[in-house]
Design a protein that fits this description.
- The protein has about 230 residues and is of the alpha/beta class.
- It folds into two domains: about 150 residues, HAD superfamily/HAD-like (Rossmann fold); about 60 residues, DNA polymerase, domain 1 (Orthogonal Bundle).
- It is built from nine helices and six strands, in the order E-H-H-H-H-H-E-H-E-H-E-H-E-E-H.
- It has a six-stranded parallel β-sheet with strand order 3-2-1-4-5-6, with helices on both faces.
- Strand 4, helix 8 and strand 5 form a beta-alpha-beta unit.
- Helix 1 packs across helix 4.
- The chain is globular and about 55 Å long.
- The two termini are about 20 Å apart.
Length: about 230
C-alpha cells in the first residue's frame, strides 16, 4: 500500500531547468560562440556540477571557466525567474497527497538554501514532512542515497512510496532505491528516452494522483486517516 510520495524539485515542481538551459545557451553563444545542444545538456539534468562542468569543457574547450560561466548564467536566470510559478497540476497533487494523509517528501540534488527559498516563496513548504538536498548526503543523483535517506526519514519502505521525477538521473536514483517512479518531463527533458519507469505524464494536470497510483499499483493508496508514523 502506498503511504507516501517523494518529489524531485528542479524541473518537476518548478521548471527551473528550462530557464537554466536558456541562460546557459545565451552565455555560451555570447561569450564562446558555442551553440548549447539541448540533447546533450539534458543528460546533465538532475545531477551536479561534476557532470555539467565536464560537459561544458567538452563543447567549449578546457580553458572555459565554468564557475564564471555559471555566474553569468545565474544573472540571466534570476532575471527570467523573478516570479517563479509551479508547473501545471503540482498544487493539485500536493493537495491530494495531503488529503489522503500521505507522507510527503522532497529529494533534490540542489542545495538546501536553493530549495527552501523557492518552497517558501511559493508558500508550499508546509506540505512537506521531509526535505532532503545535496547538503544532507555525500552522493547525489543518479546515486540512490538521497532517496534512501528520504525513505528512512519518512519511515517508509520502498514499496510504500512513489517518486515523481523529470530526469533520467532522478529516475535512475529512484529505481536503484527500489521506488516506483513516475516521470513528468519538462521542456528540456521531454525528448529523452525514458526506460524502466513505471508511468509517464505530460504534466500532473493530465491525471489525478489517485488514478496514477491505481494504474501503477492496482490500489488508491492509504485509506483516509491512515498515516505511517514519522521518526
Amino acid at each position: 500500500m502506498i503511504k507516501g510520495v517523494i518529489f524531485d524539485f528542479d524541473g518537476l515542481l518548478v521548471d527551473t531547468e528550462s530557464v537554466w538551459y536558456e541562460a546557459f545557451k545565451e552565455v555560451l553563444l555570447e561569450r564562446h560562440s558555442v551553440e548549447l545542444d539541448l540533447a546533450g545538456y539534458s543528460q546533465c539534468i538532475g545531477t551536479g556540477n561534476e557532470v555539467l562542468y565536464p560537459y561544458f569543457h567538452q563543447i567549449a574547450g578546457k580553458s572555459v571557466d565554468c564557475e564564471q560561466l555559471e555566474n553569468e548564467a545565474y544573472v540571466k536566470f534570476k532575471d527570467k525567474m523573478k516570479k517563479p510559478i509551479l508547473r501545471e497540476g503540482v498544487m493539485e497533487y500536493l493537495d491530494e497527497a495531503k488529503q489522503n494523509n500521505f507522507i510527503i517528501g522532497l529529494a533534490s540534488s540542489s542545495s538546501r538554501e536553493w530549495v527552501m527559498r523557492y518552497l517558501e516563496q511559493l508558500d508550499i513548504i508546509g506540505y512537506f514532512h521531509v526535505v532532503n538536498t545535496k547538503d544532507d548526503v555525500t552522493r547525489i543523483k543518479p546515486d540512490p542515497e538521497l532517496y534512501k535517506k528520504t525513505l528512512r526519514d519518512c519511515n517508509l519502505l520502498p514499496t510504500e512510496a512513489i517518486a515523481f521525477e523529470d530526469s533520467l538521473n532522478g529516475l535512475q536514483a529512484a529505481k536503484q532505491a527500489g521506488i516506483r517512479c513516475v516521470i513528468v518531463p519538462n521542456n528540456v527533458t521531454r525528448n529523452l528516452e525514458f526506460i524502466n519507469h513505471d508511468y509517464q505524464l505530460e504534466s500532473m494536470k493530465q491525471e489525478a494522483m489517485s488514478e496514477v497510483i491505481k494504474k501503477i499499483t492496482g490500489t488508491c493508496g492509504a485509506p483516509s486517516g491512515v498515516r505511517s508514523s514519522i521518526r
